[in-house]
């Protein structure tokens, strides 16, 4: 079952468009959303959250219109920009936010305040970026949402809390069948926890695949530069030449390269490799 479905969604702006975007977020999994700066991730999330209008297509949340007012109850949205609440403390924010949610879980709220070591009575404007992210996460988790949407959640966090957060998310997925959608530039985080990846570039979907498919289908091939000619170039999705050799992304069955196995190295591609080769300019 899908919690979110985009069907041919287009949004036209003067100098940037999302075109014919179709994607799904499956229930009970962690889906990572990747793409270079300015590729349209935040725009897509804003359309999903009904903060931004689109021109064509359709978005469904929980099988209903994305405009259904009940959706807000079921979504925990995590972002580091708590500018609306700068003069508030966590205590004030709770008084304001908790009554908005039918499923507010006070015990869980207290548990996360302690776990994240957040001060209840300090003004949000005096928080560090990481503390703001933790605060956003605290409120999102405390109303027990069906879907957690996170825009760049790990970017401002120190490595220790980043890893703890990833573990927490994975735990919630495994134990509570939680659906999590997160955009991130830290692709190693997604290599570690994502079940599915949605990859966009310049407002267009490049692919939506499971991590198992990605690991099976994408490889980095390294070898001597003499192997590269007009015919071999066509085999690769992306190619990087240096003075002594080449690195290339290959999509398909790597058995094709078995005859050359003495002169090349074949490695599984990381998400960073895939992003690098699929979005860099042609050489
Ligand atoms: N309010 C706006 N009005 C006009 N253009 C905008 C607006 N917000 C964003 N854009 C443009 O839309 C494009 C996509 O931006 P978006 O923030 O969705 O990308 P992103 O993939 O989230 O990028 P990043 O990884 O850098 O956060 C960019 O070219 C940006 O300049």
TrEMBL record:
One of its GO terms (molecular function) is ATP binding. The keyword Nucleotide-binding applies. Residues 1-227 form the ABC transporter domain. It comes from the Bacteria. The keyword Nucleotide-binding applies. InterPro entries: AAA+_ATPase, ABC_transporter-like_ATP-bd, ABC_Transporter_VariousFunc, P-loop_NTPase. Keywords: ATP-binding, Nucleotide-binding, Transport. PROSITE patterns: ABC_TRANSPORTER_2 (PS50893). Transmembrane segments: none annotated. This is ABC transporter ATP-binding protein.
